[in-house]
Automatic annotation (TrEMBL):
Organism this protein belongs to: Rhizobium anhuiense
Domain of life: Bacteria
Entry GO MF terms: structural molecule activity
Name assigned to this protein: Flagellar P-ring protein
Family classification: Belongs to the FlgI family.
């Protein structure tokens, strides 16, 4: 019995010590979910093309002369002479074609492209993008796009009404671009790996470096990672390591993440996002609104029968003032649950909570960054 009691006491002491050390809001994530490889970033591509086959919803050649010039140049390249001919059919639209070239893309693979109208076309629905070259920032052609455009929005109109849902002047061509050129850099030619945090934070960067060094010490016999700043962690390649396998092992390591306390407010939509680490010092808040309503109800006064009087208008104004709220509540937010409960106890709508949070920040009681969108 004494041995069993001592064992329970030891377990209780260890549990209490671990509870004191572990943070209340400890969150863990894989490295691949919080950081990206610098050599594995996307590259943006852009091009100019034509969409044909529209049902009278394309560009007007008078208001968009570049569409007619592009169509004539395309037909001449196909061996068709267009001298002296004029066309007023609105079945062609000039578009800007954009795409993202994924990292390590090889020739022959396909990517999605986005088409956006440049002229006065009203809809790209039902159109087909003709062969368009896509260039990178260095001016080199990396892909060629062609295919049917898919537009999610639609437009219906009559003589007296028009109904439009979504955007009809932009669409996508799924798998419409074929990669023709490989990127000049190769992954295995690198001498190190540079991880970039999606949410820069010094604490998270240090923890990533410590976790990677622990893995490298057990696997290769020494540390290989160093946190340069709050965003970059540089990992040197061991001599006996394969770079691809090394990255596959590192990106699955579990790291405890940390983010600064923030409150994001969108006043247009009334959206409020409060981070888990937001704290509020004890503060008294009173919220109330004064509504003044002015109503004009003029009355018409008629003259007496057989009199020479005139019809007159007598003004009549009713003014009503109403004040709501006015309760005083004490808000003390040692954690997120208490903070939200304190705001809900005041009984105000999201727009009122936005005003309260701005006032708490001005008073210096909000221990977080206030981001207004």
């Amino acid at each position: 019995m004494k041995l069993f009691f001592r064992f329970l006491t030891l377990v209780a002491v260890v549990a209490m010590s671990l509870a004191d050390v572990a943070p209340a809001w400890a969150l863990t994530s894989r490295i691949k979910d919080i950081a990206s490889l610098q050599a594995g970033r996307d590259n943006q591509l852009i091009g100019y093309g034509l969409i044909v086959g529209l049902q009278g919803t394309g560009d007007g050649f008078r208001s968009s002369p570049f569409t007619e010039q592009s169509m004539r140049a395309m037909l001449q390249n196909l061996g068709i002479s267009t001298q002296g001919s004029q066309s007023s059919a609105k079945n062609t639209a000039a578009v800007m074609v954009t795409a993202n070239l994924p990292p390590f893309a090889s020739p022959g693979s396909r990517i999605d492209v986005t088409v956006s109208s440049l002229g006065d076309a009203t809809s790209l629905r039902g159109g087909t993008l003709v062969m368009t070259s896509l260039s990178g920032a260095d001016g080199q052609i990396y892909a060629v796009a062609q295919g049917a455009a898919i537009v999610s929005g639609f437009q219906a109109q009559g003589e007296a009404a028009t109904v439009t849902e979504g955007v009809t002047t932009a669409g996508r061509v799924p798998g419409g671009a074929i990669i023709e050129r490989e990127l000049p850099s190769r992954f295995k030619d690198s001498v190190n790996l540079v991880l970039q945090l999606r949410n820069p934070d010094f604490s998270t960067a240090i923890r990533i470096a410590d976790i990677v060094n622990g893995y490298a010490s057990a696997r290769f016999g020494g540390p290989v990672a160093e946190a340069k700043d709050s965003q970059e962690v540089v990992i040197q390649k061991p001599r006996t390591a394969d770079l691809t396998r090394l990255m596959a092992d590192i990106e699955n390591l579990i790291v405890e993440t940390d983010t600064p306390a923030k409150v994001v407010i969108n006043e247009r939509t009334g959206t409020i996002v409060i981070g888990s680490d937001v704290r509020v010092s004890p503060v008294a808040v009173s919220y109330g609104t004064l509504t003044v309503q002015v109503t004009e109800t003029p009355q018409i006064i008629q003259p007496e029968p057989f009199s020479r009087g005139q019809t007159a208008v007598q003004p009549q104004t009713d003014i009503t003032a109403e004040q709501t709220g006015g309760r005083v509540a004490i808000i003390d937010g040692p954690d997120l649950r208490t903070l939200v409960a304190g705001l809900n106890n005041i009984g105000v709508k999201p727009d009122g909570i936005i005003a309260i949070l701005q006032g708490i920040k001005s008073a210096g009681a909000l221990q977080a960054e206030l981001v207004l969108q």
